[in-house]
TrEMBL record, chain A:
Belongs to the cation transport ATPase (P-type) (TC 3.A.3) family. Type IV subfamily. It holds the Pfam family Cation_ATPase. InterPro entries: ATPase_P-typ_cyto_dom_N, ATPase_P-typ_P_site, ATPase_P-typ_TM_dom_sf, ATPase_P-typ_transduc_dom_A_sf, HAD-like_sf, HAD_sf, P-type_ATPase_IV, P-type_ATPase_N. The lineage of its organism: Eukaryota, Metazoa, Chordata, Craniata, Vertebrata. This is Phospholipid-transporting ATPase. It catalyses: ATP + H2O + phospholipidSide 1 = ADP + phosphate + phospholipidSide 2.
UniProtKB/TrEMBL annotation, chain B:
Its main location: membrane. It comes from Onychostoma macrolepis. The keyword Transmembrane helix applies. It is found in: Apical cell membrane; Cytoplasmic vesicle, Secretory vesicle membrane; Golgi apparatus; Membrane. Coiled coil: none annotated. This is Cell cycle control protein. Keywords: Cell membrane, Cytoplasmic vesicle, Disulfide bond, Glycoprotein, Golgi apparatus, Lipid transport, Membrane, Transmembrane, Transmembrane helix, Transport. Signal peptide: none annotated. It is a multi-pass membrane protein.
Amino acid sequence: MSFFGLDCTRKKEKEVERKIRANDREYNSSFKYATNSIKTSKYNPFTFLPLNLFEQFQRIANAYFLFLLILQVIPAISSLSWFTTVVPLVLVLSVTAAKDAIDDINRHRSDRKVNNRKVNVLISGKLISEKWMNVQVGDIIKLENNQFVTADLLLLSSSEPLNLVYIETAELDGETNLKVKQALTVTGDMGDNLEALAAFNGEVYCEPPNNRLDRFTGTLTFGTQKYSLDNERVLLRGCTLRNTDWCFGLVLFAGPETKLMQNCGKSTFKRTSIDRLMNVLVLFIFGLLALMCIILAVGNGIWENHAGSKFNAFLPRKENTAFSAFLTFWSYIIILNTVVPISLYVSMEVIRLGNSYYINWDRNMYHARTDTPAEARTTTLNEELGQIKYIFSDKTGTLTQNIMTFNKCSINGKSYGDVIDHYSGQRLEITEEMTPVDFSFNRLADPKFFFYDHSLVEAIKLELPDVHAFFRLLALCHTAMAEEKKEGDLVYQAQSPDEGALVTAARNFGFVFCSRSPETVTIEEMGIQRSYELLAILDFNNVRKRMSVIVRNPEGKLSLYCKGADTIIYERLHPSCSELMKVTTEHLNEFAGEGLRTLVLAYKDLDEEYFSEWKQRHHESSVALEDREENLEKLYEEIEKDMMLIGATAIEDKLQDGVAQTIEQLAKAEIKIWVLTGDKQETAENIGYSCNLLREEMNDVFIVAANSPEEVRQEMRDARLKMCPATEQDKFLIPEVILGNTPKVVLDENVNGDYGLVINGHSLAYALESNMELEFLRTACMCKTVICCRVTPLQKAQVVELVKKYKKAVTLAIGDGANDVSMIKAAHIGVGISGQEGMQAVLSSDFSFAQFRFLQRLLLVHGRWSYLRMCKFLRYFFYKNFTFTFVHFWYAFFCGFSAQTVYDEGFITLYNLVYTALPVLGMSLFDQDVNAGWSLEYPQLYVPGQLSQYFSKRAFMMCALHSCYSSLVLFFVPYAATYDTVRDDGKDSADYQSFALITQTCLTVTVCVQLGLDLSYWTVVNHLFVWGSLGMFFILTFTMYTDGLFQLRPSSFAFIGTARNCLNQPNVWLTVALTAILCVLPVVAYRFFYSQISPTINDKVRYKVRQMKEPAPRPRRTRLTRRSTRRSGYAFSHAHGYGDLVTSGRFLRRHAPARSLGLIPTGRSPGFKPTGRSAGYSPVGREQNPKQKVEPTSLQMFRAVKDSSF
Amino acid sequence: MMASSYNAKDEDHHPGSVGSGGPGAVKSKKPDNTAFKQQRLPAWQPILTAGTVLPAFFMIGVIFIPIGIGLLVTSNNIKEFEIDYTGVDMSSPCFSCSQNYSWNSTSVCTCSVPFILDQPFESNVFMYYGLSNFYQNHRRYVKSRDDSQLNGDKSSLLNPSKECEPYRTSDKKPIAPCGAIANSLFNDTLELFYNHPNGSRIAIHLVKTGIAWWTDKHVKFRNPGGNNNNLSIVFHDTSKPVNWRRPVYELDPSDPDNNGFINEDFIVWMRTAALPTFRKLYRIIQKKKDNMTPTLPPGNYSLEVTYNYPVRSFDGRKRMILSTISWMGGKNPFLGIAYITVGSVCFFLGVVLLIIHHKYGNRNNNADIPN
């Protein structure tokens, strides 16, 4: 077999298993693995032109114009010079090509920068600084602190004890917290011994390149031993080494085969509803074009038969009639091609880009605290923002701040945290004015922590043992890391904010978590430093919903401390606690009612013998290869029982600023908000009330929480019957649509009153089944507010898809976490909150900003304007082009259907590009009917967008009719005015050239006047553009008709002198004025008439603005910080995501989260995994969907900390 | 009607006070506070209110109606006389000529068409010939010319543009001027006689120059070599258009500045008409020097036609038009009528809209906007 053939077959074969031998470039190169140089650029200088042109001509519009160009070079058909098509086409192509080229140059530049980064590579026993691109699979490289990881590496050894390394994965998955990786002991022993490393000849067998960030399987064969490799031994490209002096790694995947690059897949391409409408319209326009051309071709046939044949003496003709008609058809295709405007698409892109920049520039969407401006990550969806009908919102981090504050607690049956008025015994509302507890006794207290109940501090100072135990537990049982930046300034790095809040609370109450090492946790108890030996961490996951630590205190006593969800802990309490349980349950209910997140704390003293025996079994299980997870689980179950209850904590999840007001505003704009949250029902309901989604004055709030499909169906039917007693079964579908294969559309149903719907994940699973989804959708759409709780990421996407499928409405999904990625991708518009929880949501979103409240500005101001501008643009654009084109149609009846143009060819070329391009662009970049303040004052202004009132098929037809009228005026007024007329010196003025000039002057002036009428916001730029274009028309016209240009090319500039001879006639100017007035008169009358008879909301608001003659209203600053008893609520569930506790500490192993984006049913390429996310899990989902099961690898996290220590 | 629009605007009015962390800190990502970027550019925001629309309508009415009246009066004051000499009717003097036409006939057919002017024509009188149903604006016709050749380009003279086909060459010689337009040059000769009441027949002096646009005569059309003498040499290697009786250098042998390509009759013809019915300036009758007597007094006239141009084949008509002119050009009542109509309609619409505004406008505009 030839070398070539071998190469080919290898390329074709998919890599099944990767074999690498360390330090053996020769061996590795036989497999032709990719080198580490990456190439994200598409072109090089030679391929740019052909490739780029090829790509561009794949667009229908460009291909169409190429086709026209071909038609134009056929002499018999060519009714226009080739340059009328070439000039616009070249302009469009070169603008696009320039943009592509700049993009590609930037890509080249970044590629080069990355490829030329230096790294130390171990080559024949020496460390040599090499460029990244020269690194090969199988090389051993040395990374230093704060360096980027060069390629996907197998971690061999590190400077840290236990061969740990810390990495930051911000570039990879957006999470900023550090993660820990650990090398195998056998490789770790090599340390930085270069000789040993150079001699290392381990062989790695591993999976082929893939894009799964959370998974890695492979084996290392070194010496005679085989070691299994998993994700924990691998450093991925894109991470950054932190807090680690150095480490050595073996390159497994390089360059394009790294997981980072494999993940840079294509993102799904979203189109706006206007785009889709445009596609339909363009088809319609093609139809219209064909129709016109057929009519004219037939006309030509008839004319040739009658008049043309007799006219032969003057105009001989070779073809027969039919052939002449056929040629005429194509000639008119060329002439009338301006109905399908090439510049339309380019202009639309420019407008969208401009409006995207406005979003980026908006200071009112800039969040100062996090220094985050809003960002339009997709620049092609702006106008869709003005048409949103449904918003799907995540809760945690989106509606809420995801900042947890320790608010209340219950210790040994006593509740702390409320401020009681001494005289009346009433509970007081906590306000800013109250004096918080003074923590000055504790030098390590966090100054940002506030607590208002002084009795708890007193209890601490009284040294009540329960209170001490309570806080000791909080200080010990967690996975946070402490960092002492300055003396006395502790910073905790906790994976979940809940945990951070608890540890901080303990810190302020005198139980300061100081530091930890693999074996110890050091805390300062009321000023005395004590070191606890940490024997095991029984980590949290969403099945266990609890975590425990086993520690030995300095006195040598063994204890197990546990915190977790109440239901779970209650099952595992010692029977002697039953009294306390009752009181605590009351407190828990109270806390939950106030919308606080609660956790129950318990402890257990352990017997030394029992524990050592347990430890032994634990060690065995954790090294076992089979059923490791199950056995561990059993072991955990076994030891976490008969615990003693200490108390409960309550944490407040704070709402973001302005959430309630924003929701109120959006509701006024008739946007429906559905909250999709992973939280429990009570919690979700609570948050619904506190952010105005659910209101006390609602007629009813239906709660669907049933356990069987029948019950769910029945509950929904009941709800519907109550909302609309007259509801009939099948009236909700558009009948004719049912018959066809097109998707059904569910119409909105009228409901008397306001209703809310709360549905839990379990019922939602049934409701989303195909036989019930319509029922669910109907019910949900009849309600003002829908809250889905306990939903999985998959269900979030399913709900969005459901609405997309059956409702002709634009949807928006907003979220901040990885569990929102699926719905963000599913919705028409995805908005990411650039919050505290990593960037996955932002990375897959179309727009991002820091605060939920910016949504109202994004939609009500930017969205509305963008939509308005795009619609105005389209209406005007079609108007001007149709008007321009239809004149040719009328002229055909007077020139023997000969495809003679009305205008000069120069004018045809420049009309769209120069004379009318800028004014309309200026309109679509600056126009605003009312300013931002008024837009927010009257959210109803948003409604026309939802109904697509500004641009629809009907509006398009109106445009076409309007153009038809205008073109008739534009043709017949000059026709009549010049008919048999002469100039004021008796000379000819009804000649073709003068007529062309008069008509095109009339046209230019008319479309400018029409634009002026449409333009409601005349900035300096608009003035410049409008007057400039008009001036440009005259300047260029005179220029093109000069002697000089004629002398250069007599045949191209045959219009010499026409402008001079024609435009000095008063007659001509009277004609121009007459056509302009005649064209706009009906429009003005019509608009004024309707503004009087039935003014739209826009008319009313603008009228009001005019009357008030005032600047925009100062936005009211009613910052309602609700302090009522109804507040954001999470009951009972310490809602950690699967990954939460696991990753933060140095002891923790990175574990794999459950399958995530594979959840999206549409099969999009999976992006980042939803790791590190609280409130995103769903135990329900586990039961419903076997795919949701936590994968085996993820259970490895349950292993206790240091296997070897047992 | 409370609008509780929440807005975090306070953050904006103290640039640099938040987020930037003081001078020297990392540059804040806060967007610039410029009117452009914040979309607060000062702007004129016109809206259609009763206060602007209704006066505008009345204003247009007030302006347009007088203009229209002025135009109409002007147009009506223009004297125009038109006579069709095609000879379709048997009774027509030119009937026989129209019957036996041929491009190449060497025999000259003349006919005399008598007519009466009722009114005196004062000042300069312009004489036009008019053709109808003649498609000078047909695409193939319009482009069948070579402007380079007409501009005196020597190479184009001998190698005319392909657009001229099939009138590009004849007898293997290039045609000058080439193309269908030139080939179909109007070649009737019109002469005007005034039959004085005293019986004498006075030939009216017809000026044949000054009928073409200055730019056409002096820029667009030039004889090859720029020399208007010895045209026969210049055009030696060319052949005359097939329908022509004389070569181009004999169009007006008497006047070298009106011969060849710069012959004004030719230039006027070459300026193709926009519509199938058109008139072209043929001759000018200059006003009498004394200003006392009209240029054309009322009375009997006869039009002597040398009938060469065949139009019967395509149902065409030939007319002779005599017309005076005004500041707005020739007679055309359209603009006047249109202005009066538009003005009246505006006025009427203004009244209607005023009534509507009174009846509905206040109700709707003063209604509160529900919030």
